[in-house]
Amino acid sequence: MDKLRAMAAFVQIVEKGSLTAAAEALDTSLPSTVRTLAALERSLGARLLNRTTRRIALTDEGRAYYDRARRILGDVADVEAAVSQKQGAPRGRLAIGSSVLFGRLHLAPLVSEFLARHPGVKIELLMLDRVVNLVEEGLDASVRIGTLADSSLVAIEVGHTRRVVCASPAFLKRHGAPRVPADLSRQPCIRFTGTGSGDWEFKVGGKPVRTRVEGPITTNQVDAAIDACVQGLGYGKFLGYQVGAHVRAGRLRYVLETCEPEPMPVSLVYPQARLVSARLRAFIDWIVPRLRERVGAVKQ
What is the pTM of this model? Predict the structure, then answer.
């Protein structure tokens, strides 16, 4: 068995999400891909994937093997690029993730600029308002907002964003501005599950305080929550970059600014520092300073 070829096939199976899609990507037959996976598992003495008729899922052994395999294959690609003197022109696929609104406002425009400079690279953008496992989703890197708990990731901080509460001018005229966080428990609030639904966090006198809120709408889509807030349905709690443009345009106003919790870090993260592929290194080196410019330029 060609171990490197089998390793590449396994990585394709995980990233494509099915044996059939992997076979198409590898330009081989489905039975051949199945045999390759079976031979790899036999040689390792471990099951790498749990397979059903509908989906595949990594085992613990498979997750560890996938992480190492991606880095090994990336290193092989780097060596080949160096030998063929193509190191200065990165090529191949990158999968990059972020939250939906941050991706639309900040990441996507920069990705377009990067691709204009590096036509040999193809980028797949995955934008979701939830924390994703980079390995399981097949991501090379992702923008994360918040404190990182995963020590297996390398994080490059690119800025911070405030956690703010706001409301429309018309709503504030009708209800008045809250003086303390507890006032919100008696007012209608728009609950965006991406920044917490039932309790809102504040900081009063240097100590964390949580306030239970209720309101007319709860949604997992930040655009819908912001629109409801602009329409005057209640207070909303968001990240500063999400509503900064509305505040600057006068459609929303901040309240309780002295009670805001600590700003949240914005970081570009990727698995493991060593053996980073040439195309990912080129992307990181190019986008990090530009993300810092964009995040730092928005006074939220």
Answer: 0.70
